[in-house]
Design goal:
mainly alpha; 3 helices
């Protein structure tokens, strides 16, 4: 038989968790998806022998879109949970 913890202990445990201010929103998801599509297009261009388009797409995906999706904060001031 499982014994439930009192609400006070659960509240204290939640209070100990640090809020890092990270929130994931729709914009973050769209940038991540766009970054993955650009990376896939870059690798397809690379496999076809493109020596100008492929590096541009790969650099855009790896250095702009993927980090941008991680660094942009959402508009709401929630904890991200």
């Amino acid at each position: 038989m499982a014994v439930a913890k009192p609400a006070r202990q659960r509240a204290q445990k939640r209070a100990l968790e640090a809020d890092l201010g990270f929130s994931w929103g729709v914009v973050n998801s769209l940038l991540l998806a766009l970054g993955l599509v650009v990376l896939a297009a870059g690798y397809v261009a690379l496999s076809r022998g493109s020596i100008t388009l492929a590096p541009v797409l790969l650099a855009l995906g790896y250095m702009v879109l993927i980090p941008g999706s991680l660094l942009i904060r959402g508009r709401k001031s929630g904890s991200g949970e």
